[in-house]
């Protein structure tokens, strides 16, 4: 199977290198600039040809990865000629696979291959491929090929049904950049009484790591700790009172998080219905 990449940025370069290292034939690349294409070709071994036009890369390949910015996927795919038996996938999390419909109408199999990983720098990203997950959406004929490709580089494949990408991708934010927003909120509260970000993060990040380790070992409800998990309604009331004196926004944010945590406490099953009711009441 000849694999080509159109778009030779951070993700394209990393995937091309991973596929090459796993023994796949990455045979072509085309990008906007020759410099990016050359970098991908270097990572993908001697058999990778740099094409000036994406159509040349597509014509010479069996499976084409469109690793361009999300906004460019549909217009790029629609402007290219596709053939029966060929496959084309994009790597976006949020963009529906149906943006490749014109390629499908011409006989190509279409799909999505979204790695759940950050690709800030290809050199740093490559060793993290193995052990990460990839969300695959594809027709029945293409699914086994993409699954095999994923497993060969150490990705754990998960299968996405069509039409769920908005929810799917929004949810990934909760385990990635939204964690930063939580830590920002915590640092802001400490900044207000003179603790700078560096000192705050040095104290808070070990708590965060410990929580994630516990979630990995015991599941989400099993890892729950803190006043809500103990039914300590007095402590929760104190939090609410002090945050309300800080700002309406801070106390509302706390209440939203606390209500979600009460759901986890119910799932955990350690608290009685009376304990839960007292904690709920303490939120005001
Ligand atoms: N980065 C991540 O962490 C990450 C994670 C998961 C999924 N993804 C997905 O992966 C895809 C690519 O993201 P990325 O981070 O690799 O982006 P990127 O680093 O900006 O790379 C995009 C590449 O596409 C090239 N390009 C742009 N428009 C083009 C066009 N019309 N024709 C041909 N090439 C074109 C760019 O040109 P040049 O040749 O000028 O460089 C660049 O090399 C996106 O769909 C993104 O959602 C990214």
Question: Short description, anyone?
Answer:
By secondary structure, this protein is of the alpha/beta class.
**Mean pLDDT across all amino acids:** 97
CATH architecture of the largest domain: 3-Layer(aba) Sandwich
SSE class: alpha/beta
DSSP strand count: 8
What is the chain-wise order of helices and strands?
A: EHEHEHEHEHEHEHEHHHHHHH
Q: Can you describe this structure?
A:
With 284 residues, this protein is of the alpha/beta class. It folds into two domains: 2-163, NAD(P)-binding Rossmann-like Domain (Rossmann fold); 174-282. Helix content is 55%, strand content 13%. It has helices at 10-21, 34-43, 54-59, 70-78, 101-105, 122-125, 143-152, 165-174, 177-191, 197-222, 227-230, 233-246, 248-268, 273-282, and strands spanning 2-6, 25-30, 49-50, 63-66, 87-90, 109-115, 133-138, 156-159. It has an eight-stranded mixed beta sheet, with helices on both faces. Helix 5 links the parallel strand 5 (87-90) and strand 6 (109-115). Helix 12 (233-246) runs parallel beside helix 14. The longest helix is centred in the last third of the chain and has 26 residues, at 197-222. The mean pLDDT is 97. The structure holds NADP nicotinamide-adenine-dinucleotide phosphate. NADP nicotinamide-adenine-dinucleotide phosphate binds next to helix 1, helix 4 and strand 6.
């Amino acid at each position: 199977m000849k694999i080509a990449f159109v778009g030779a940025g951070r993700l394209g370069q990393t995937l091309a290198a991973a596929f090459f290292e796993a023994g796949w034939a990455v045979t072509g690349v085309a990008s906007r600039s020759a410099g990016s294409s050359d970098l991908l070709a270097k990572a993908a071994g001697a058999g990778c040809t740099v094409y000036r036009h994406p159509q040349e890369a597509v014509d010479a390949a069996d499976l084409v990865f469109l690793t361009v910015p999300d906004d460019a996927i549909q217009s790029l795919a629609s402007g290219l000629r596709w053939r029966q038996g060929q496959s084309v996938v994009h790597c976006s999390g949020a963009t529906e696979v149906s943006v490749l419909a014109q390629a499908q109408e011409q006989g190509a199999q279409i799909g999505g291959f979204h790695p759940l990983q950050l690709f800030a720098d290809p050199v740093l990203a490559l060793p993290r491929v193995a052990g990460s997950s990839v969300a695959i959406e594809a027709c029945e004929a293409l699914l086994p090929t993409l699954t095999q490709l994923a497993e060969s580089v150490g990705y754990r494949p998960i299968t996405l049904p069509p039409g769920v990408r908005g929810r799917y991708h929004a949810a990934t934010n909760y385990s990635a950049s939204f964690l930063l927003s939580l830590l920002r909120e915590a640092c802001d509260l400490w900044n207000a009484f003179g603790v700078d970000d560096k000192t705050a993060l040095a104290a808070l990040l070990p708590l965060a790591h410990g929580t994630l380790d516990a979630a990995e070992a015991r599941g989400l409800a099993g890892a729950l700790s803190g006043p809500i998990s103990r039914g300590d309604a007095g402590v929760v009331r104190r939090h609410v009172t002090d945050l309300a004196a800080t700002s309406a926004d801070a106390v509302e944010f706390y209440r939203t998080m606390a209500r979600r945590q009460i759901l986890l406490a119910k799932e955990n099953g350690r608290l009685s219905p009376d304990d839960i009711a007292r904690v709920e009441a303490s939120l005001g």
